[in-house]
Specification:
449 residues, binds uracil, 14 strands, 18 helices, 4-stranded antiparallel sheet, 5-stranded mixed sheet, 3 domains, Aldehyde Oxidoreductase, domain 3, alpha+beta, Pyrimidine Nucleoside Phosphorylase, Chain A, domain 2
Length: 449
């Protein structure tokens, strides 16, 4: 086979065969095919797309580029969640203990901060001592003992995705629906799970701003998972404003702890419960989403979900005393308050801009080798639709660098819009999509009021 002919074939809009895709991706991972040719292939895919069959093959080849975990020694049902990424999204920190407290297993492989979005691993590592680099043996024994582990991708797991993602990032080919699909599903399938729930976000802080693209991605993810007989449910959700009130690593971990203790912000609770309820349905713990909500509420109210989080932190070597007493955690030295200049309503909290600002305050890395300042970030005191009085604080930015705070003030101010009229409120959750079809979330939501 000749890679130039295959690139040309894709460039001209033809379907690549299983053998051809295998040849290209395996050749790239083994370094027999150079980066510049795979860059050209990625751009051809970006413009020409891929058929469902090609997307499924790419997913399989990427999954099989490394080891596929096998938890057959653990007899329970293993299920995971993936989010396409957003601002203030600390759902995984709440969902993993919540689901484990119901008796299902969550072998979660998570990522780090990327562009304007935070990463689950960075949020967990805000807890002193928390190790996300468990060995495969530790992962397996921890999963069996506690019911949930949250670890980083290793060199053994989907190395093709690791290489391709970095190349896509550098060649402006990230936003391709088949490439995103193969990237997400190959990683999740390598976890050795029995079912998957997906949070596909749309809006200013999401991978796709346009709702129709998010829908297309959700359908492609569910359709591709069906090729592998992996029961999968996607929900399409709103990422126009950040999720919850906290943005920044420790601030988000603290909000996750509060949510596990029954004091979470409404939107964060609703989305977490919606995703968890789908997991409980897939894992046959409940028959309906409404029943799922009852179970979840009970696990929070009884303290079992929070206790499970403490067990997870202990398993990963983290300091449980800060989890039990979050007030003991250090705070940033400097702060800046965004105050409303008039009476009115919060009409917009631009997710992407708020995410970018939080990163620039010190919550993110400018390069892979950079450290993170866990204490800095942004707290929102109001959400879209809330009324606000002149002079009232809408958001507070925290940093340990006065220079960074000064440099980002204008940016943060521009992310907040105040209007005189109450703005129309978009739903947080638009729809649920699975192999049997699509449903508006509103109709399901009514079941639990
Ligand atoms: N998340 C992933 O894991 N991969 C993508 O390509 C995009 C988002």
């Amino acid at each position: 086979m000749n890679q130039v002919h295959l690139i040309q074939k894709k460039r001209d809009g033809h379907e690549l065969t299983d053998r051809e895709l295998d040849f290209l991706i395996s050749g790239y991972v083994s370094e027999e095919i150079p980066e510049y040719q795979i860059s050209a292939l990625l751009m051809a895919i970006y413009f020409q797309g891929m058929t469902p069959k090609e997307t499924a093959t790419l997913t399989r080849v990427m999954r099989d580029s490394g080891i596929v975990l096998n938890h057959s020694a653990i007899s329970g049902f293993k299920v995971d969640k993936h989010s396409t990424g957003g601002v203030g999204d600390k759902v995984s920190l709440i969902l993993a203990p919540l689901i484990a407290s119901t008796g299902l297993y969550v072998p979660m492989i998570s990522g780090r901060a990327l562009a304007h979005t935070g990463g689950t691993l960075d949020k967990l590592e805000a807890i002193p001592g928390f190790r996300t680099n468990l060995s495969l043996d530790e992962l397996e024994s921890g999963l069996e003992k506690v019911g949930a582990v949250l670890v980083g991708q290793t060199a053994d797991l989907t190395p093709a995705d690791k290489k391709l993602y970095a190349l896509r990032d550098a060649t402006a080919t990230v936003n391709s629906i088949p490439l995103i699909t193969a990237s997400i599903l190959s990683k999740k399938m390598a976890e050795g799970i029995d079912a998957l729930v997906l949070d596909v976000k749309a809006g200013s802080g999401a991978i796709f701003e346009e709702k129709d693209k998010a829908w297309e991605l959700a359908r492609m993810l569910v359709g591709t998972a069906t090729h592998f007989d992996l029961p999968t449910t996607a929900i399409v959700t709103n990422m126009e404003q950040p999720l919850g009130n906290a943005i920044g690593n420790w601030l988000e971990t603290k909000e996750a702890i509060e949510t596990l203790q029954g004091n979470g912000p409404a939107d964060l609770v609703e989305l977490t419960f919606a995703l968890c309820a789908q997991m409980l349905v897939l894992g046959k713990k409940v028959e309906t989403v409404a029943e799922g909500f009852d179970v979840l509420q009970e696990k929070i109210a009884s303290g079992e979900a929070f206790d499970k989080f403490l067990e997870i932190v202990e398993l990963h070597g983290g300091d449980t005393s800060v989890v039990k007493n979050p007030q003991s955690y250090p705070t940033s030295e400097f702060k800046f308050e965004v105050k409303s200049e008039k009476n009115g309503y919060v009409a917009g909290l631009h997710s992407r801009e708020i995410g970018v600002t939080s990163m620039a305050l010190g919550a993110g890395r400018a390069s892979v080798a950079d450290g993170i300042d866990y204490t800095c970030g942004i707290l929102l005191h109001k959400k879209v639709g809330d009324s606000v009085a002149e002079g009232e604080v809408v958001a507070t930015a925290y940093s340990n660098s006065q220079d960074r705070l000064e440099a980002n003030k204008a940016h943060l101010l521009s992310a907040v819009t105040i209007s005189e009229e109450k703005p129309p409120i978009e739903p947080l959750i638009y729809a649920r999509i699975d192999a049997s079809g699509e449903a508006k979330w509103d109709s399901e939501r009514k079941a639990f009021g």
